[in-house]
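Work Package 4 report. The design task specified in the project plan requires that, given a folded chain encoded as C-alpha cells, an amino acid be chosen for each position. We show below one input record used in the internal validation round.
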C-alpha cells in the first residue's frame, strides 16, 4: 500500500518533557508508516521559545490562521521554578494563552470513552463535551478589601464624560468588593464557536447561566445566544435535527448528572473552569481528555487536555520505565487529520483518522493499557504496558485494518 496523501500541511506545534517524547513515538509508530506526512513544524519546546523570545509561538498561531488546522503537544507554562530549571530569559506567557489570543477561540474538551473504564456517573454513555468561555468575568476582576463603613458604587463614565451610577452597598463595617465585566463581541464569538461546533460534530448544544439572579449580566449572555441562534443557526439546527437548549445553570447541572451525555455543554468562564474538572475526573482520567480550540475565524487547534507529565519525564531521564498514556495526544493528531481531510476533501485521510482512533480504543478494550488506566479498569486481567509497547500494539491493529 502506498502512503496516504495529504494536500495542505498541518501546523505541528511540538512541546515539552514526556509529551515531547510521546510526540516523536506517535509519529514514528502510528503516522509515518501510513501517511505521507506534511507538516509545517514549529518547536514550542521551552528552550526554543526562549531562544526566539517566544516569537515561535506567535508564528505558529499565525500559521494556523493561514493553513486552518494545527496539532499541539503539551508545553511548559513557565513559573519561577521553570525559569531557573531552564535558565530562561523571562517567565514567558502560557503558549495556550498566546495562541488563544491570536485565534480568539473557544476550547471544547471531550473524554475518550472505552468499554471497561466506566464513568463515575453511570448514566453517561456518550462523551460530554464541555465548552468554556475563556474570557472575562471573575478572571479579569477588580477587587477591594473594604476596611470599614462606607459606600460602594458602580460608576461608568462614557466617552463623552457622562456618568451612570448605581449603589452596590452601604457598608456598615468591613467586607469585600468585586467588579467584573464581559464584552458583547467576546460573548458573540463564544456563541458562534458553540453553534458551529455543534453543527460540525452533530451534537445538541446546552447553555446555562444564572439569569434569574443576574438579570442584566447573565441575561446578556442568554440574549446574545438567543438572537444569534434565531438569526443565523436555527434553520441549520432544525435541518440537522439538533436542539439548542437554554436553561438555568443549576437546572443544567442537575440534568447533566442524569443525562446520557453526547451533547455540548457551554459554560460561562467560572462554571466551565469548575465543571470541566468535574467532568474529566468523573470520566476517569485526564489522560483520556481531548481538547480542541475552535476559532470563529474557522480554524482549529487540536491537543491533549493534560500537561507535559513532568513527573514521568524525570523518571524517564533517570532511565526508569514509564507508562505514560499517549491516547489524548493520539486523538489530537486524529482530530487534526480528520479536519484536514474534511477541508481538503481527502476521504482516505479521514478514514485513516477513524482507523487510528478505533485501533487505539480496541487495544485498550482488549485489556492492553498504560498504568493510569490499569488502575481504574473494570477488568482484572489487564496487561499493563509502557508507552512504546502500547503504540506498537496499536500499530499492529492498524496494519490489519489498512492492509499493508
Ligand atoms: P500534567 O502534566 O497534566 O500531569 C499531572 C499528573 O496527571 C501526572 O503527574 C500524572 O499523574 C497524571 N497524568 C497526566 N497526563 C498523563 C498521561 N498522559 N499519562 C499518565 N498520567 C498522566 O500536569 P502537571 O504535572 O501539573 O504539569 C506539568 C507541566 O505541564 C507544567 O509545566 C504545566 O505548565 C504544563 N501544562 C501544559 C498544558 C498544555 O500545554 N495544554 C496543560 C496543563 C499543564 P501521576 O504522576 O500520578 O502518574
Ligand atoms: Mg480548573
Amino acid at each position: 500500500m502506498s502512503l496516504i496523501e495529504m494536500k495542505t500541511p498541518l501546523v505541528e506545534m511540538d512541546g515539552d518533557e514526556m509529551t515531547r517524547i510521546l510526540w516523536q513515538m506517535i509519529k514514528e509508530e502510528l503516522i509515518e508508516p501510513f501517511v505521507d506526512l506534511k507538516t509545517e513544524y514549529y518547536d514550542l519546546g521551552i528552550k526554543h521559545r526562549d531562544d526566539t523570545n517566544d516569537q515561535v509561538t506567535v508564528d505558529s498561531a499565525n500559521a494556523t490562521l493561514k493553513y486552518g488546522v494545527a496539532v499541539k503537544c503539551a508545553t511548559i507554562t513557565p513559573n519561577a521554578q521553570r525559569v531557573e530549571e531552564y535558565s530562561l530569559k523571562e517567565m514567558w506567557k502560557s503558549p495556550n494563552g498566546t495562541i488563544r489570543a491570536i485565534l480568539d477561540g473557544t476550547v471544547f474538551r471531550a473524554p475518550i470513552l472505552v468499554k471497561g473504564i466506566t464513568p463515575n456517573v453511570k448514566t453517561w454513555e456518550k462523551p460530554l463535551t464541555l465548552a468554556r468561555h475563556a474570557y472575562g468575568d471573575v478572571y479579569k476582576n477588580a477587587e477591594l478589601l473594604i476596611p470599614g463603613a462606607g459606600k460602594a458604587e458602580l460608576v461608568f463614565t462614557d466617552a463623552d464624560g457622562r456618568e451612570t451610577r448605581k449603589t452596590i452597598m452601604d457598608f456598615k463595617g468591613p467586607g469585600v468588593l468585586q467588579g467584573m465585566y464581559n464584552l458583547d463581541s467576546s460573548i458573540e464569538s463564544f456563541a458562534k464557536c458553540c453553534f458551529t461546533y455543534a453543527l460540525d460534530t452533530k451534537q445538541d448544544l446546552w447553555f446555562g447561566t444564572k439569569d434569574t439572579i443576574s438579570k442584566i449580566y447573565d441575561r446578556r449572555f442568554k440574549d446574545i445566544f438567543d438572537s444569534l441562534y434565531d438569526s443565523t443557526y436555527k434553520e441549520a439546527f432544525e435541518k440537522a435535527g439538533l436542539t439548542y437548549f437554554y436553561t438555568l445553570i443549576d437546572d443544567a447541572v442537575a440534568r447533566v448528572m442524569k443525562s446520557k451525555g453526547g451533547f455540548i455543554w457551554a459554560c460561562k468562564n467560572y462554571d466551565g473552569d469548575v465543571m470541566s474538572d468535574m467532568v474529566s475526573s468523573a470520566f476517569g482520567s485526564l489522560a483520556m481528555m481531548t481538547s480542541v480550540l475552535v476559532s470563529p475565524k474557522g480554524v482549529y487547534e487540536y491537543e491533549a487536555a493534560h500537561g507535559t507529565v513532568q513527573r514521568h519525564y524525570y523518571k524517564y531521564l533517570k532511565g526508569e520505565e514509564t507508562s505514560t498514556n499517549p491516547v489524548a495526544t493520539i486523538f489530537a493528531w486524529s482530530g487534526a487529520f480528520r479536519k484536514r481531510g474534511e477541508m481538503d476533501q481527502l476521504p482516505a485521510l479521514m478514514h485513516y483518522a477513524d482507523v487510528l482512533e478505533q485501533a487505539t480504543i480496541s487495544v485498550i478494550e482488549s485489556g492492553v493499557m498504560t498504568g493510569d488506566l490499569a488502575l481504574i479498569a473494570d477488568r482484572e486481567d489487564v496487561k499493563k504496558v509502557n508507552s512504546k509497547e502500547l503504540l506498537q500494539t496499536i500499530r499492529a491493529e492498524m496494519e490489519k485494518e489498512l492492509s499493508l
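The two ends are 5 Å apart (CA to CA). Validation will be extended to a larger panel in the next phase.
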